């Protein structure tokens, strides 16, 4: 495994307006992602940013992380500005926008242990009680459970792409084990935190088994197919997994997952 190329970056802004339906703003404390999943769409997006050409040109996805060391300070300033706008129109009862960590990269990738920027951002969002969402695949989110339980409105999603850890090792070898992710959902649920599983991209799996393992620990489930097939085609081929890269496979898996969760009256949304 190659060494991680780490750079401390001063960011000019923290909140980014989101184009994802239902998400108002996102905050990405880190640029790049140590987990380096083979199918990651952020890899592609990152190539066009100034940070990439300035600090990480020619490095591969998963080999670099930019640490936005002042992101929490910027977030505080921007939240204060939003608050003063809201307070100008008290009669209109303007709702606070929601903020998601991080969407483009994982907010609980290993560098977070040291820099704690996700935690610092959460402290600010908690102080002003902004509706908050988290999407991660890391059990490190449990470190911040003391903050999560204090939010009036928070949800935590765990990305789980298969039930088979050998398959996980093929496509996302640096990411946490599947077992640890399911355990994370269970622990969050024990604290009454709203949770969801993001089953995407669908990797080769036993869909019924995965559904059974997650059942009881989630309030809802999102499912997505492998969207960037050109990135992973070779991995499927050399591992004789071609059967699982077809649209029919994605449809069959999502139907099985839908059947399992619908029968338990758990909301499920298929994103493709
Ligand atoms: S954890 Fe998420 S952001 Fe990080 S490499 Fe994997 S898919 Fe991309």
The small molecules bound here are: iron/sulfur cluster
Q: How is the largest sheet built, in terms of strand order?
A: 2-3-6-7-8-9-10-11
- Estimate what percentage of residues fall within beta strands: 15-25%
Class by SSE composition: alpha/beta
What is the number of domains? 2
Mean pLDDT over all positions:
95
Low-pLDDT segments, ≥5 res: none
Q: What does the main sheet amount to?
A: 8 strands, mixed
Q: Give the N-to-C terminal Cα separation.
A: 34 Å
State the share of residues found in helices, binned by percent: 25-40%
Notes on the structure:
There is one protein chain. The protein is α/β, with parallel strands linked by helices and 272 residues long. It folds into 2 domains: 1-131, no CATH class; 153-272, Aldolase class I (TIM Barrel), CATH 3.20.20. It has 11 helices and 11 strands. It has helices at residues 41-46, 50-56, 71-88, 111-115, 117-127, 145-148, 165-171, 178-190, 207-214, 229-238, 247-262; strands at 5-9, 15-17, 25-27, 30-31, 64-68, 99-101, 132-136, 154-159, 194-199, 220-223, 267-270. The strands form 2 sheets. It has an 8-stranded mixed β-sheet. The protein has a 3-stranded mixed β-sheet with strand order 1-5-4, with helices on one face. Strand 7 (132-136), helix 6 (145-148) and strand 8 (154-159) form a beta-alpha-beta unit. Helix 3 (71-88) runs parallel beside helix 5. It starts with a strand and ends with a strand. The chain binds iron/sulfur cluster (SF4). Iron/sulfur cluster binds next to loops.
